[in-house]
Amino acid sequence: MARGNYVFTSESVSEGHPDKVCDRISDAVVDLYLAADPYSRVAVETLVTTNRIVLAGEVRGPESVTTDKIEQVARNAVRDIGYEQSGFHWEHAELQNYIHEQSADIAMGVDADTSAEKDEGAGDQGIMFGYACRETDPLMPAPIYYAHRILHEMAKARKGGRTPELLPDAKSQVTLVYENGMPVRADSIVVSTQHIEDVTQDRVKEIVRGFIDEVMPQGWVNGKTNIYVNPTGRFVIGGPDGDTGLTGRKIIVDTYGGAAPHGGGAFSGKDPTKVDRSAAYAARYLAKNIVAAGFADKCTLQLSYAIGVSQPLSLYVDLHGTGTVPEDKLEDALRQVMDLSPRGIREHLGLNRAIYERTAAYGHFGRQPDNDGGFSWEDLDLVEPIRAELS
Q1: Which class for 38: exposed (0-12), middle (13-18), buried (19 or more C-beta within 10 A)?
Q2: Which residues make Cβ contacts (< 8 Å) with residue 63, sequence separation at least 6?
Q3: Is the pLDDT at 127 greater than 60, yes or no?
Q4: Which residue has the higher pLDDT, 123 or 116?
């Protein structure tokens, strides 16, 4: 039987965290290529440190995407985040670009071959997980959902000019008390935020406490809640000037905050032929629709792929003892309502578009779908087709 009473913690990091700066730049490059050609192949990594940005990776796309354009979108991303500091400045940081052409061997393995009736294969082997639960309206685990929201609201206020005392780098951590398997209150909340030199820690605590009270459900923060704001004290030197960043180092922040398994593959910097990204989106999409359809209160879904093979090797559903239908019947139904080949996923979710830069911070899941198709994996349009298959 599942444990009912416990505490659970998840963390988030802001768009100004060094690793998230890298994710943002890498996804900006993905969007640049997809805007020029929706069938571009992109796998780009970024490293940032004190006044330096280093790009590396493999691409196959139009010649119109020049080195100058790549450098410009990288600098624009850093500028939008808000870095104009002596140790890391969007305009003055040295940028080195080592992006090169994709391997012909990989291309041969994953491209479709219409003459041989060979569908496009997965770009790599791997396992991907999706998850959904009834803890929040977006069917996300509550600790990661609220950890993201605190930082997202802080960033919007900073960029809107309402909190000039704050700078881009920040982290949050939310620990919730669960009773009978559902969150009921906050045990502790930690927020560390970079700030300007001339501000007191009392003022920083006052600002941050306002966002905590705004975001957390009423009654969840009370006299029993421990709140820590900048527990080490001063936090002026931050971002890439204070710590080196790399693409793909925040995979738990990007997904479910540790509340669900993770296959190990990062998202940012990868075009949607890479199943590390697209199949993880599909797994979340399926899990969310299962819970939204009322077949379970909680769902974990796993997909697995082999490089060059189009259909998933396996599809596994775990309803954690909360299901109203047999899991094997549900697995069969999911294969009927969605083509889970790399091409099928991309076409169903409309992933061959420049929609990825916006995903690079505050989580890839639990976000509202955009008008132009971003976060389409959060849609609930499979609820009725799944019900129909099981009727």
Answers
A1: middle
A2: none
A3: yes
A4: 123
